[in-house]
Write a structure and sequence with these properties.
Blueprint: H1 3-29, H2 34-51, H3 56-73, H4 77-80, H5 84-103, H6 111-140, E1 147-152, E2 158-164, H7 166-198
Antiparallel strand pairs: 1-2
Length: 199
C-alpha cells in the first residue's frame, strides 16, 4: 500500500475512534447504561489494533461494522428503517469471516483450516451475541430483542411500535448471520476458482 492510501486508512481509523468516544461521552452525560458498551467497544478496537498488529486494510472491516452500528443505534437507523437490523446481521458475519480469514493467514497457512476457523469463530459470535441480548433483557429488563419502528398512528402522531417479538427477532438474526457465513463461503469458492483459472 502506498503512503497516501496508508494515511487515508489511518485517518478513517482515528475518526472512528473519535466518533466512538463522542457517542460514549454523550451517553455518559445522559446517564445511559449503553455508554459502558460503547466505551468497551472503543477500548477493544484500540487493543486489537495495537496488540495484534492487524493490517489497516483488514482493520477497516471492524471500523465499518462499528460505524454502521453507530448509525443504527445513535442515529436511530434501526428505528427508521425496518430492514436495517437484518442487513447488518447479514453483512457483519460476512465481513467478520473475511477479517478472520485474512488475519489468520500467518498462524494458519492452510487455506481450508482458515476457512473452518473463521466460520466457526463467527458462528460462535453470532450465538454468543444473541445470548447476551437474552441475558440483558431478562436480567436488566431491557428490550434488546424485538424490532421497533417509528410508525404514524391513526391520530397522526409518530410513535415507536414493536413490529416483531423477541423470539422472532432472535431467529431471524441468526438466520441472517448464517446466510452471511454462507455468502462468505461462496465468495471464497469463487475467488479460489478465479485464482486457479489464472494459473
Amino acid at each position: 500500500m502506498n503512503k497516501t492510501g496508508d494515511l487515508f486508512l489511518s485517518i478513517i481509523i482515528y475518526i472512528s475512534w473519535a466518533l466512538l468516544l463522542f457517542v460514549s461521552i454523550f451517553y455518559i452525560i445522559n446517564s445511559d447504561y449503553i455508554s459502558i458498551a460503547w466505551l468497551f467497544a472503543l477500548f477493544l478496537m484500540i487493543f486489537i489494533y495495537y496488540r495484534y498488529k492487524v493490517s489497516k486494510g483488514a482493520y477497516t472491516v471492524i471500523v465499518f461494522m462499528v460505524v454502521m452500528h453507530i448509525l443504527g443505534s445513535f442515529f436511530e437507523f434501526f428505528t427508521y428503517y425496518e430492514l436495517y437490523d437484518k442487513v447488518l446481521h447479514f453483512i457483519n458475519p460476512f465481513l467478520l469471516c473475511f477479517f478472520f480469514y485474512i488475519t489468520l493467514r500467518q498462524k494458519a497457512p492452510n487455506r481450508k483450516k482458515r476457512i473452518i476457523y473463521s466460520t466457526l469463530a463467527v458462528l460462535f459470535l453470532i450465538l454468543f451475541w444473541e445470548f447476551l441480548e437474552y441475558l440483558a433483557d431478562n436480567l436488566y429488563n431491557l428490550s434488546s430483542r424485538g424490532d421497533f419502528l417509528y410508525k404514524i398512528t391513526e391520530d397522526n402522531t409518530i410513535k415507536i411500535v414493536k413490529v416483531s417479538d423477541a423470539t422472532t427477532d432472535t431467529i431471524l438474526d441468526i438466520i441472517a448471520g448464517i446466510i452471511g457465513i454462507l455468502a462468505f463461503l461462496t465468495g471464497i469458492k469463487f475467488l479460489s476458482k478465479n485464482k486457479n483459472k489464472k494459473k
